Amino acid sequence: MDLATAFENIKWLSVLGAAVSSFLIGGIWYGPIFGRAWMTEFGFTEEDLKKRSIPKTFGLSLLLAFIAAVILEMFIGAEADLVFGASAGFFAGFGWVAMLLGILYLFEMKSLKAYLINAGYCIVALTTMGIILGIW
User: Fold this and answer.
1) Owning domain of residue 60
2) What would the pLDDT profile of 82-113 be if each residue is shown by its tens digit?
3) Domain count of the fold of the chain
4) Cα–Cα distance measured from residue 29 to residue 82, given in angstroms and rounded to the nearest whole number
5) How far apart are CA 93 and CA 38, in angstroms?
6) pLDDT grade for 22, boundaries at 50, 70 and 90
7) What does the pLDDT average to over 22-40?
C-alpha cells in the first residue's frame, strides 16, 4: 500500500480514541502507579511539576499521542484486526521505542528503574492504541 492510500484509509475516530487512551494511560501510569518512583528517578519535586504549564504540557502531549496514533494506524492498515493491532502496537512499543530508549538510557547513564518506568509506559500505551485501532 502506498502512502496516499494509507492516509486515505485512516479511521479518524479510532485514531482519536487511541490518542485519548494513551493520554489516560499516561495519567494513571505517571500518577498513582509509578508517579512517585518516576519523580524520584528523575529528581523532580512537587514544586518542579507545579512550575510547568499544564495547558502546554497536556495539550502537546495529547497532540503527540494523536500523531503517534495516526502513524500507527497507517502502519497497521485498514484491514487490521484486534490481534494484529495488539501485536503491531506491542512490537512497536517493545521492539522500537523501548529498545531505542534503552540505548539512550545507557549513554545518559539513567537507572534501570527509570528505563523500565518509561519503556513500560510506551509498550502499554502502544499496545492499547493498537488494540483500539485494530477493533475499530
Assistant:
1) 3-135
2) 999 999 999 999 999 999 999 999 999 999 99
3) 1
4) 23
5) 19
6) very high
7) 97
